[in-house]
Amino acid sequence: MTTGWRIVRPEFGREPYSGRGARLYGGRWNSPGVSMAYASATLSLAALELLVHVSRSLLLPKYLSVACHFPEALIEDLDPSRLPPEWQDFPAPPELVSIGDAWVRSRSSAVLKVPSAVIPMDYNYLLNPDHPDFRLVDIEPPRPFALDYRLLT
Q: Considering the chain, what percentage of its residues have pLDDT values greater than 70?
């Protein structure tokens, strides 16, 4: 089994892998209107992904970490040759949204393994909550997670 990690604010702890936030606002790998849940291969990478996406003032509240587990057979690896040269840029190049949206529409897998723009040697997982095999994803109950305040300095 493979494990993915998300860190969420408590108000999102009831449905941390619903893809609702990404559907409402879009993200690096999806456009608004497309459901997708983002997870990291490790809890530490999930913390770094959080740090680069929120302002320091939002770091003060407590968070929840939520692990999920899924069979390796559900994972499709993104071919790195499909990435544009500036794939790590912020804001993300539109090609990444096209790749993610096309993957969701294709329903080729429930999970897509992609490199992290924060730590390119590590991986994130994109989960499609609308894929029939998403039911095989085992989501653990949320656990309290607090960032070390030294990260704020």
A: 94
